[in-house]
Amino acid sequence: MKYLNAYLLFFLMFNLNSQDLNLFERENFIIENDTLNYRILKPINYNPNIKYPVHLFLHGSGERGSDNSSQLVHGSELFLKKENREKYNSWVIFPQAPKHDWWGYKDPYKLNYNVKESKAMSLVVKLMDNFLSRNDVNQNKIYVSGLSMGGMGTFVILNLRPDMFAAATPICGDGDPNSVNNYAKKIPIWIFHGSDDTVVSPKKSLKMANAIIEAGGSPKITFYENVGHDSWNNAFAEEDFLKWIHSKTKKQ
Fold it and tell me: pLDDT tens, 15-51?
């Protein structure tokens, strides 16, 4: 998987142009003895007097590490497209979980990737709390997306910060159906999954959608026929993916 991601990153850089990829600036969030690597894309034609939306993106398990690059393998191209940068101008944050961690948080549902207790998600939450205090951030337009392990992390962070986000798009993920009550009615959620996914069963997304409905929410869900685990490609190709996300404003 390590070599596959290195190849994918090389392929991505070859097609995107490494200069474009480097628009995602390398940053580190350090608190006490812990460090979270992340990449951040600045709004195009940045103006410090404008309040911009923020889009947090959580990668999958194969992109974990310490290179502060692999997390850009999936999804970065979508945000780097000139038309998207102009139409949906925002901050975009791609944190990277360490190799032996995941986007969990004292998880009660055993999706822990052999990790006893996750620090990565705790650091992401603290990073977001810190970043959203800036004057150039639109507090009412904060979004989160994630794929596979990041789809699981999306449900985790919604539970941890139910008042932070205006919309969420978990892709081929899973979650705890008993932890949706505090965000089900607040946050519009569009769930994606491939019907033929053998890595994370599409039943997991259906389970979460049903739990959100039972809690009074109204999720949107899309299943892709004859598509396996890489349903993020289909999700990113949705004409309304970013349009739907940016149409949402946090409920007061």
Answer: 555 558 899 999 999 998 999 999 999 999 999 999 9
How do residues 80-99 score in pLDDT, each as one tens digit?
Answer: 999 999 999 999 999 999 99
Residue 243 has pLDDT above 50, yes or no: yes
Q: 12 and 77 in contact (C-beta within 8 Å)?
A: yes
Is 44 part of a structural domain of the chain? yes
CA distances to 63, 97, 137, 204 from 199, rounded to whole Å, are 16, 20, 36, 11
Expressed as residue numbers, the domain containing 210 is: 2-246
pLDDT interval class at 222 (50, 70, 90)? very high
Domain count within the chain: 1
Torsion, Cα of 38, 6, 90, 152 (10° steps): -70
Mean pLDDT calculated for residue range 120-136: 96
Residues 111 and 174: their CA atoms lie apart, in Å, by 8
Q: Which of 133, 181, 134 is nearest to 158 (CA)?
A: 181
Domain of 117, CATH number, reads 3.40.50.1820
pTM for the model stands at 0.91
**Is 251 among the domain residues?**
no
Distances (CA, A) of 9 to 12, 35, 71, 171, 175: 5, 23, 9, 20, 28
Residue 118 lies in a domain: yes
Residue 216 structure tokens: 């009074």
Instruction: List helix spans (H) across the chain.
Output: 2-16, 18-21, 76-80, 82-87, 120-131, 149-160, 202-214, 232-237, 241-246
Residue 252, domain member (yes or no): no
Amino acid letter at 118?
S
